[in-house]
């Protein structure tokens, strides 16, 4: 062996390592914390204090935990929907737009019944929210299945359009007539708001529906023929075609599913913590949910954990801003870093590093 | 309309098209090598903030432009390590690059909101620059505008005529064949990815130093994504990319002028949707049309490659 040979030899694993598949997200989180330490140090903050306020102090109060659920709910709902699509190799990255359109559709119902709400108003709003998100996801679905247009670019472009559409409405026809010309709608009536489950918190009914949706997503992917078809389509598109699964039908299905869930998440935001239509409904939940889906290993139950963790990055960002004056933008940096580390550590799942000179464990692997 | 008004409109079209042209041209080379980098938006905005910070710190626009290119390439390097060395999923890594870049730029840029920057050097030729219509149209732009046109010529020549360009295309069309006849696929792709990052950074630098000489959070406003769409629109051909970038520059400006002219009674936000809707329309026409432009896509686009040594 020449002295210039690399220290490590890289070999593909014959099967992905199950243990590492679930351990690497934890490794990625740990590396993000370490990177955060140095970022805070470089920015001139006390890194221990900053990390404490970012990751620990939000978890010391009951209110902090309830906020974790409130912010985690939309991330979990959207993440579950996106994960089903990613498994089928359908890249809906416009969930932020579908969320906005769901909020607009559901919010419009709330405003239409304003002052004369009945027990049916809230369910109707939920249906409108789902329909709004689905209808918006139907555009990339139609363009992809009918013309073969890449769904990544169309769904993303539509996000900008949705934000502008919402802005048109709250500056125009849906503006509160008694709102001193602020760009926001009337506050929804009490019967059009999601019930609060625990006094003194913002914990609303939608947070529990989000958890139920994650469990339902797990059942769908694990026990149903649709889940099986989605996985085959993503892993072996030719096998899927050979087996007679309809590719276009599944593309429609996963886009409508992820769009509908994003729309419902948007409706839960306006009928929950916000209570009215405002120009910006989400602080980027639709994009963060992409990270949530990957960090949860595209598994609905993993997504519950990763959703709560990413919710912590929002709350921690706010806490650190108040306590140590850290800019809110740190949250985005952390989220990007986390995904980088996760993707990098994926390498360990698929490849094996062997020290130079070490004896191969499986001699037949070197055939 | 008078000559002056016409040339004013055309001037603004040129400056709206230039950032798109830079970013899209870089991505075209990246995709020709078989790599899909969806992080253009992230590289562009980090380029914009780096250029702005350095230009306002040093007082030199040129240093700012250089900083923009370096910052874009630095982000592209992260993408390269993940997708080329570690064979990570290119779509996911590109998205991560955009999320990271948007966060990083607003972190760096927090102290630069509302601060002016020194203007970029203009190319002025005494006498000719004062000619009506032709003068201001051909001369007197920022040097970056000329650089973007030169870059189109250079990339077209590089891909079509140069040996290195042919190797790059071979790597993009069939990585395994290129590898087996002895080309270093990963090294070629690294160079392409770094070039793409530097070009996206230049596009960002033009935005923050010339187009709107101010720093604002999220100021790229989806231009990185439009650049990605332009590459598809141009079916991976540099000259068509030039036409596409100017077409989109035109759409942006038309929408701005309509807004300032009262918007024909249409709300401003609806007019602002136009560039995004135009992107979707153009992608659909390209995909649905009879000309099969999609067949020109590099065969290995987006597929990870690891040499089996």
- Structural class estimated from helices and strands of chain A: mainly alpha
Measured between the Cα atoms of the first and last residue of chain A, the distance is 19 Å
Ends apart, CA distance between termini of chain B: 66 Å
Q: Any guess at the CATH architecture of chain A?
A: Orthogonal Bundle
Number of helices of chain A: 13
CATH-defined fold name of chain A: ABC transporter involved in vitamin B12 uptake, BtuC
Computed CA radius of gyration of chain B, to the nearest angstrom: 20 Å
How would you describe the overall organization of this protein?
The complex is a heterodimer of chains A (367) and B (309). Chain A is built from 13 helices and 2 strands. Chain A has 367 residues and is an all-alpha fold. The model of chain B has no long low-confidence stretch (mean pLDDT 86). Chain B is mostly helical and 309 residues long. Chain B has a domain of 214 residues. Classes of the chains: A mainly alpha (367), B mainly alpha (309). Chains A and B meet through helix 5, helix 6, helix 11 and helix 13 of A and helix 3, helix 4, helix 10, helix 12 and helix 13 of B.
Concise account of the structure shown:
The complex is a heterodimer of chains A (367) and B (309). With 367 residues, chain A is mostly helical. Chain A has 13 helices and 2 strands.
Topology:
The complex is a heterodimer of chains A (367) and B (309).
Chain A: E1 8-12, H1 18-42, H2 47-56, H3 62-87, H4 95-112, H5 121-147, H6 151-171, H7 205-223, H8 225-235, H9 237-242, H10 247-274, H11 285-295, H12 300-324, H13 330-350, E2 351-355
Antiparallel strand pairs in A: 1-2
Helix pairs in contact in A: 1-2, 1-13, 2-12, 3-7, 3-8, 3-10, 3-11, 3-12, 4-5, 4-6, 4-10, 4-11, 5-6, 5-10, 7-8, 7-12, 11-12, 11-13, 12-13
Chain B: H1 3-32, H2 40-58, H3 61-85, H4 90-109, H5 134-138, H6 143-161, H7 163-173, H8 175-180, H9 185-211, H10 223-233, H11 238-260, H12 268-272, H13 274-288
Helix pairs in contact in B: 1-6, 1-9, 1-10, 1-11, 2-3, 2-4, 2-9, 2-10, 3-4, 3-9, 6-7, 6-11, 10-11, 10-13, 11-13
